UniProtKB/TrEMBL annotation:
Domain Leucine-rich repeat-containing N-terminal plant-type: 30-66
Protein name in the entry: Leucine-rich repeat-containing N-terminal plant-type domain-containing protein
Family membership: Belongs to the RLP family.
Membrane-related topology note: Single-pass type I membrane protein
Alphabetical list of PANTHER family matching this protein: LRR RECEPTOR-LIKE KINASE (PTHR48063), RECEPTOR LIKE PROTEIN 30-LIKE (PTHR48063:SF112)
Family annotation (InterPro entries): Leu-rich_rpt, Leu-rich_rpt_typical-subtyp, LRR_dom_sf, LRR_N_plant-typ, RLP23-like
Pfam families: LRR_1 (PF00560), LRR_6 (PF13516), LRR_8 (PF13855), LRRNT_2 (PF08263)
Residues annotated as signal peptide: 1-19
SUPFAM superfamilies: L domain-like, RNI-like
One of the record's GO cellular component terms: plasma membrane
Repeat recorded as keyword: yes
């Protein structure tokens, strides 16, 4: 019965609060006037303050009043119109704002305000507890804040102080209640001037100084940040070791020191002292030490990023209490690009929340444990560039949420069958290149995934062209070079390649008409490598005209194939394609291109490398070859080119390699050429007959 009564009471109160009697408690006249003055000085292109006309100012957009007193208590004009400049308010912040003496909350973030030095815009807002001027404009603010002694949240990130404003932070000293301080992107070079005022803030829990040009944090000051929970000093230039005062933290939950130049041993004691640490990012520094081996307890850690440092030692600590009791909360582990060694853990099952695991570019050895299949949340797995060996456990096929698997560049061997992929329904990136793996799936296998990137270079995929590729409709990157495929290019391949961006099938023994690979349905292709280093692809036919439709091509290499006919003449002055690209048709014992070098080639103005050597090209070098002004290397050697070398060749100011040897080019002109190109400083190799 009492419960019911209580419920009725709540309904009554709610009704009451919606009635007129409360909502128009008041709009205090002087405050309304102050707001109108404030509005007057603003620009408001998207009319966000359109409602600022009626009597009841407490109902205006962004305003909240105290229900009892009617005073304006909250002004929130945050521009939440994601990056759209047209929604931002501009103009001056009018000093009339000082009339809002009962304001507790002021958020002007992501607008474009200006304050003037002489104006005292915020000085009397004594009750203010929350001030957010993050990316709100520029001007003089810090010198006006000293009276706001009730501030608990102060966000001045990205607020541009005028150069004449005081650079030191002594004005902070009055904020004994401050809990949250964000001064990101302010330039705070001198540690004495930022660190000592901040250490006075005895209630501080959040300190964010991203990109503040901090160079040295190790000032010999007694620092007692006993209440700090959140510290972000990323994107600075600190090059010291971790300052000793870090050992005084005991309540840290979030520590971000990434993108500095910190050196020395990372003190394990930080982990031991801060049992509530959830987030640790020290990536992109020069820190060392055997952090993972030595730390024995990190129950609460969810994000661990040590990427790009010099950490060493075992990747896994058999004595780690958290792991052994199966209590890890880790979601993200990125320790790539370090010197870690030792073996992988053999009880992955303890990391049941793990989503992201990147151990790449270390020296980790030994086998992959079958318990890897017990990571039900795993989406990203990168073990590449290590020294892992042995077979890949079948259980890997259980990782139903896996999207990215990169195990390239290890010593793994054995046979992968369709069981290894059985439940990988979400896989979009599969990198297994440079191992000793054999892929052996049935010809009628339909993979459970639709892959985007496949890198299987130097795996044994063949001898048949893999039929399962036929089922894939979203392939962007396909590298099956040196994959022991000895087969005819299937007729369906050009369908699979319809959205391809990078293609490498070199070093196999492919046969057939190259137009099955370079088809006109490949508008996004940026890279084709079909040259035969060790294998013997023997494509027949002319170079297809479709080549001229591959507008984004950056790298084309058709070396050592069996191509014949002419270089397509389909380029014209509208061929704004192949910017910075590299074109190789080199052909030792393979290609037999004949005919002339098309004049149209000189329209490919941003070409960087051109190699047409060892064909049977005849005629002149195009007169306008000098149009290819970004050309860095030009090799036309071993052809039957004749006549003069065009003088425009001396326009090629970036040329560093030039080979015109073994043709019938006029020697007279060669000599002139030497004179000309020698004035071009970048040349470092020239060859003629
Ligand atoms: C609310 O507004 C009405 C008229 O709009 C007025 O009569 C009434 O007195 C106001 N109530 C209060 C509490 O100010
Ligand atoms: C200040 O505003 C920005 C963006 O409007 C927001 O990201 C940030 O969290 C706010 N700061 C605080 C302390 O709430
Ligand atoms: C601080 O407040 C006092 C009293 O209200 C006032 O006299 C003084 O000018 C204020 N200080 C600043 C810097 O505005
Ligand atoms: C550190 O600061 C806190 C909060 O101001 C205080 O309670 C504590 O005694 C200080 N610790 C030492 C050792 O001075
Ligand atoms: C740690 O805090 C104590 C108490 O405030 C202080 O005496 C000591 O100097 C601090 N240590 C460092 C390295 O700053
Ligand atoms: C880790 O422990 C080893 C001894 O096992 C010690 O030599 C080394 O200094 C410790 N490293 C760190 C970073 O604590
Ligand atoms: C895996 O890591 C390597 C080296 O750190 C990196 O080059 C590669 O791009 C990563 N793989 C994926 C799929 O992101
Ligand atoms: C990789 O492991 C093999 C044994 O599996 C070992 O012979 C080799 O030295 C290791 N290479 C590196 C770079 O650690
Ligand atoms: C794997 O997929 C099959 C059906 O495709 C399903 O029955 C099975 O439960 C899945 N196993 C796991 C571990 O997800
Ligand atoms: C081609 O693959 C084999 C293994 O199948 C490997 O030994 C060889 O180094 C690879 N060659 C190239 C050029 O990558
Ligand atoms: C290759 O295919 C193209 C387009 O289907 C065709 O025009 C050409 O004649 C073929 N070349 C050879 C040598 O079969
Ligand atoms: C070509 O190179 C220039 C200079 O490196 C670069 O600015 C431009 O974005 C590049 N263009 C493409 C399409 O990659």
């Amino acid at each position: 019965m009492p419960t019911l009564l209580c419920a009725l009471f709540v309904i009554q109160t709610l009704k009451f609060s919606h009635s007129k009697a409360l909502t128009n408690v008041s709009c205090i006249g002087t405050e309304r006037e102050a707001l109108l003055k404030f509005k007057q000085d603003l620009t408001d292109p998207s009319r966000r303050l359109g409602s600022w006309t009626s009597e009841g100012c407490c109902e205006w957009e962004g305003i909240q009043c105290n229900k009892k007193t009617g005073h304006v208590s909250k002004l929130n004009l945050r521009n939440s119109c994601d990056g759209l400049e047209s929604c931002s308010l501009g103009g001056k912040i009018h000093p009339a704002l000082n009339e809002l003496k009962f304001l507790k909350y002021l958020d002007l973030s992501f607008n474009d305000f200006v304050t003037h030095q002489t104006q005292k815009t915020l000085t009397s807002l004594h009750k203010l507890e929350y001030l957010n001027l993050s990316f709100a404009g520029y001007g003089h603010i810090s010198n006006q804040l000293s009276n706001l002694s009730n501030l608990r949240y102060l966000d001045l990130s990205g607020w541009m102080e005028s150069p004449s404003s005081a650079k030191n932070l002594r004005w902070l000293s009055t904020f004994s209640n401050l809990k949250y301080l964000d001064l990101s992107y302010a330039s705070l070079v001198n540690p004495k001037e930022w660190l000592s005022p901040i250490t006075m803030l005895s209630s501080l829990e959040f300190l964010i100084l991203i990109g503040c040009d901090l160079e040295d944090a190790s000032a010999s000051l007694p620092v007692n940040f006993s209440s700090l929970r959140f510290l972000d000093l990323s994107q600075n230039s600190m090059s010291s070791s971790i300052p000793p005062w870090f050992q005084n933290f005991s309540k840290l939950e979030h520590l971000d020191l990434s993108d500095n130049d910190l050196q020395g041993i990372f003190p394990t004691i930080i982990l031991e002292n801060n049992q509530w640490l959830k987030f640790l990012d020290v990536s992109s520094n020069r820190m060392a030490g055997e952090l993972l081996k030595n730390s024995s307890s990190c129950y609460n850690l969810q994000v661990l990023s040590l990427r790009s440092n010099k950490f060493s030692g075992g990747i896994f600590n058999a004595h780690n209490i958290a792991l052994n009791s199966g209590q890890s909360n880790l979601k993200t582990v990125d320790v790539s690009d370090n010197n870690f060694n030792g073996h992988l853990p053999n009880q992955f099952g303890n990391f049941k929340d793990l989503v992201f695991l990147d151990l790449s570019q270390n020296s980790i050895s030994g086998p992959i444990s079958a318990t890897l299949g017990q990571l039900p949340s795993l989406r990203i797995l990168n073990l590449s560039f290590n020294n892992l060996s042995g077979k890949i456990p079948k259980n890997i096929g259980l990782l139903a949420n896996l999207e990215v698997m990169d195990i390239g560049n290890n010593q793994l061997d054995g046979i992968l069958t369709q069981i290894h992929f059985a439940n990988l329904t979400n896989l979009i990136v599969l990198n297994m290149y440079s191992n000793k793996l054999v892929i052996n799936v049935g010809t009628s296998w339909v993979p459970p995934f639709q892959i985007q990137d496949i890198l299987m270079s130097s795996c044994k995929v063949g001898p048949k062209f893999p039929n399962w590729l036929r089922t894939q409709k979203k392939v962007l990157v396909l590298d099956m070079s040196n994959a022991s495929i000895s087969d005819e290019v299937p007729h369906w391949l050009s369908n699979v390649l319809s959205s391809i961006e990078e293609l490498d099938l070199s070093g196999n023994m492919l046969r057939g008409n190259i137009s099955r690979i370079i088809g006109k349905k490949m508008p996004l292709l940026t890279q084709i490598i079909e040259d035969n280093r060790s294998g013997r692809n023997t494509f027949t036919s002319d170079i297809p005209l479709q080549l001229c439709h591959l507008a984004k091509l950056q790298y084309l290499s058709l070396n050592h194939n069996n191509l014949s006919g002419c270089i397509p003449h389909c380029f014209n002055k509208f061929s704004r394609m192949w910017e910075n690209s590299t074109l190789y048709f080199r052909s030792t014992g393979g290609n037999r291109l004949d005919g002339q070098i098309p004049e149209g080639l000189t329209w490919l103005a941003r070409l960087q490398n051109l190699n047409l050597s060892q064909n049977r090209l005849v005629g002149k070098i195009p007169l306008d070859i000098g149009n290819l002004e970004y050309l860095e290397s030009l090799d036309l050697s071993d052809n039957k080119l004749s006549d003069e070398i065009p003088s425009s060749i001396s326009n090629l100011h970036f040329l560093s390699c030039l080979d015109l040897s073994n043709s019938n080019l006029s020697i007279q002109s060669s000599i002139k050429l030497v004179m000309r190109v020698q004035t071009s400083a970048s040349i470092n190799s020239i060859q003629f007959d």
